[in-house]
Amino acid sequence: MQANTIRSIYALIHTGPAMAQADLAPLEAASELAKRCQGIANAVLVGADPDTAVERARALGMENVWVISNPAWPQPLQTQQLTDVFAAALASGNSLPCTPDTVFLLAAGAVGEEIAGRLAARLNGVPLGKIKQFEFDASGHMSATRTAFGGRLNTTLNCQAGPFFAAVRKPDNAMAAKPIDAGSTAVHHVLHSEPLRPAYPVTPMERSEQHAALEGARLVVAGGRGMGSEAGFTALYDLAAKLGGAVGGSLPTIDAGWAPVARQVGQSGKYVSPEIYVAIGISGTPQHMAGIDPHTKVIAINKDPEAGIFQAAHIGVVADWQEFLPALVSAWEALRPAQSNGA
After folding, report:
1. Domain assignment of residue 291, given as a range
2. Residues 105 and 248 placed together within one structural domain of the fold
3. Among the four residues 148, 244, 264, 276, which has the most C-beta atoms within 10 Å?
């Protein structure tokens, strides 16, 4: 880092209706990172319905927010189109300087990681991949840590000169933002007038199953090898339907054919960020836990008291699921009439 240089941290967000907390993770990460390096946190929002992201950026006290949109845009924008819009804004060199010290953060996931890589290539930057944490030494030099080999190894990247592009999740130490003067954040609205490149043809297909999808679920009921067979997942779908949640599975259950691959949670599956994650018969390997947001409340049910899942659980139950789940469902159904009567 150059002497007397204030590092700029940018959150790049694709906005839209019904945004999940994971979509806003770059805002939290940029704010936290800027505080640690005494830098400046900004946000660039591209897409429709930016209000949720703007309000969050204001609550975090970000310096500037650029809202880039065009009412004629198709929704949703495809990855290559988003890359073009972000690249045009960052390459302007005016209000959005792209210097060797600048860090750009996108949401971890297939789309965010692809855009980060595309932007790095387009703007002669450095792609860092999905970063677990950033560190700064006494002189302000930055290093970044990412996992490798399915979460079994941490790799530290020595970040010499950027700009840097990384995908992030919400920081483990992120706190609720304190109310501040909303006027301290400058919000700039920009009309993107350049035509978009044509979208790739996409044919919508109906989902092959009728159960609730994992994406965006506020509660997930997940099963592991301890379920014993495909029949065990029938009980999980029943429980998830009663609780208004979705069903997930660990890699061994997917390999065994007990659940479809679309239900896999973990390093090689999907990343979920529900409020509650009920893990039933799951041992809790690092590869599986890597797919669960660190802010999610985990409830573990396992008959093995030494199962690693209990180390990450907020509530742990040592029991055979075949005995515990019927009792849980019975208690839930007994509670529902009382709730409907206002008790």
Report:
1. 219-340
2. no
3. 264
Residues 295 and 151 in one domain: no
270 secondary structure, DSSP code? B
Q: DSSP states of 25-94 as a string?
A: HHHHHHHHHHHHHT-EEEEEEEES--HHHHHHHHHTT-SEEEEEE-TT--SSPPHHHHHHHHHHHHHT-S
The answer as to whether 266 is a domain residue is yes
Of the candidates 254, 250, 304, 294, the residue with the CA atom closest to the CA atom of residue 274: 294
Domain limit, last residue, from 140, 175, 191: 191
CA 306 to the chain's CA centroid: 29
Q: Are residues 175 and 242 in the same domain?
A: no
- Torsion sign over Cα 246, 252, 255, 258: negative
- Residue 201 placed within a domain: no
What is the bridge-based pairing of β-strands 142-148 and 133-136? antiparallel
Whether residue 226 sits in one domain with residue 178: no
Reduced to 3 states (helix: H, G, I; strand: E, B; else coil), residue 197 is coil
Give tens-digit pLDDT for 208-246: 667 777 877 889 999 999 998 888 898 899 889 888 899
Number of domains within the chain: 2
pLDDT in tens, 196-211: 898 888 887 776 667 7
Looking at the domain assignment, is residue 199 inside a domain? no
Residue type, 195: P
Distance of alpha carbon 255 from alpha carbon 262, whole angstroms:
12
